[in-house]
Amino acid sequence: MIRKQQIIQKAIAANVIDSDLTAIGIMDFDGLQKTVAAAYDAFPTNFFHTFAVKANALVEVLKVLREYGMGAEVASPGELLIAKNAGFSNKDIIFDSPAKTLNDLRTCIKNDISLNIDNLQELARVDKLMLEFPNTKSVIGFRINPQIGGGAISSTSTATATSKFGYPLADGSNRQELINIYQQRPWLTSLHTHSGSQGCALELMAKGILVITELAEEINNNTGTQQIARLDIGGGLPVNFASEEVTPSFADYAQILKQTVPVLFTDKYQVKTEFGRAIAAKNGVIITRVEYTKNSGGRHIATTHAGAQIMTRTAFLPTSWPIRVTGYSAVGLEKTAEEFEIVATDVAGPCCFAGDLICADQQLPKLVPNDYVMAHDTGGYYFSNHFDYNSLPRVGVFSVSGNDENLNFNCIRKADSLDDVANNM
Fold first, then answer.
1. Which of 92, 121, 191, 247 could crosslink 71 through cysteines, CB 3.0-4.6 Å?
2. Mean pLDDT score, 379-387
3. Looking at domain 89-275, does it have CATH number 3.40.50.11240?
4. Chain centroid, CA 227 distance in Å
5. What is the CA radius of gyration of the chain?
6. Angle at 108 between CA 105 and CA 109, to 5 degrees
7. Taking every annotated instance into account, which residue ranges of this chain make up the domain Orn/DAP/Arg decarboxylase 2 N-terminal (predicted)?
């Protein structure tokens, strides 16, 4: 019996999911530990891995990621507060928001939190703050847009010619201007890019990292010193949502990076990553109860309690973010084609619009009321990115750890009111 089968059966038997708490998310902490270990095993010791907090901003999840050796990459003041509540030290946090306020910048520089500058107007603010805090230990760099093109999902491609992120390196005389900026500011000691995301090929990601590495070498040669000591190469490792197989792996990515940018695999630079989805996605599932079923226009419709309010990307962009689903009986036994009729099925959520579907027109074993549906690979960008706060009291998140014979569940978030929601963020 596979681990997920054990998890859902014991969750049902222990009343972790019941008539009131009709949708739950489960993070496998043992799986998280193995994934973090795989990331560190794939790269040499000059690499330090941070977790993109936006991918799963639950304090209890972040606590264990910190214990497993990760830092935190944050993109908003709220994420910074969450990272601090999870126990991350300032030196292990990096702030990447493209819309930092003056107060955001002051907070980082005053408290030795690293940051990446997005544009020349932000640079002017940082120039003034460096006069105010000349002894800061913040590692400060520029976020570079290498303008190498996008991947299969345009909305998450960050290195297109017109991307909103970073300093557009290929425009006009920007490259030389940036070199001059670094020569005039010895406190600029890092370069950053995030050239890939879901839907981007590893070769494309590596190409963007090669661009900033060559720029770093040019700046260091011009200054005659190792002014740039850190390269922040972002995250964006794609996740396979089509099956249980972990592909590409961190080892796959490391191999392509080593072939494309071999200097990263020496001790010349400290290299930081910002993996999020690749760390969390396959270590989380959402389980929801089927409340009602019906047939409409030849389609079997199973209405559940997990839809767009939790699986927002899947509901609004189903072709870009499809999710595998598996049906289980009321006691947690997987429903298979050998035992149940296969029918064209829509698995629907509780929201009042037609597109609130986990999946549409999929051939699934026939679901009935009080069955369960598991949405796989939802540990990243699902548990903590809800948009419908009215639904939150009905959604709980639990961790699971231990071997298959002795699984232990721990409540991470179970909101009974909007006040509790706020207190648990």
1. 92
2. 78
3. no
4. 31
5. 23
6. 85
7. 34-281
Check: CB of residue 35 under 8 Å from CB of residue 406. no
Peptide bond into 248 cis (omega under 30): yes
CA dihedral defined by 173, 174, 175, 181, rounded to 10 degrees?
120
Q: What is the spatial distance between Cα 125 and Cα 139, in angstroms, rounded to a whole number?
A: 16
Q: pLDDT (tens digit, 9 = 90+) per residue, 257-307?
A: 999 999 999 999 999 999 999 999 999 999 999 999 999 999 999 999 999
Rounded distance between C-alpha atoms, residue 327 and residue 335, angstroms:
5
Which of these ranges, 62-66, 150-154, 285-289, 396-400, has the smallest mean pLDDT? 150-154
Q: Which CATH class is domain 3-27+282-424?
A: mainly beta
All CATH 2.40.37.10 domain ranges of the chain, comma separated, are 3-27+282-424
Q: For strand 93-95 and strand 342-348, is the pairing parallel, antiparallel, or unpaired?
A: unpaired
Q: CA 196, CA 205: separation in Å to the nearest integer?
A: 5
Q: Which residue has the tokens 């991470």?
A: 412
Helix (H, G, I), strand (E, B) or coil at 237: coil
| Residue that is written with structure tokens 């630079």 in the block | 269
CA 406, CA 46: separation in Å to the nearest integer?
37
Strands 140-145 and 167-168, bridge-based pairing = parallel
DSSP string across 57-124: --HHHHHHHHHTT-EEEESSHHHHHHHHHTT--GGGEEE--TT--HHHHHHHHHTT-EEEE-SHHHHH
Cite the residue boundaries of each domain of the chain with CATH code 3.20.20.10: 89-275
56 within 8 A of 90, measured Cβ to Cβ: no
Q: For residue 3, how many other CB atoms are within 10 A of its CB?
A: 14
- Model confidence pLDDT, tens digit, residues 68-122: 999 999 999 999 999 999 999 999 999 998 889 999 999 999 999 999 999 999 9
- The DSSP result for 158-219, as a single string, is --STT-SSSEETTSTTHHHHHHHHHHH-TTEEEEE-----TT--HHHHHHHHHHHHHHHHHH
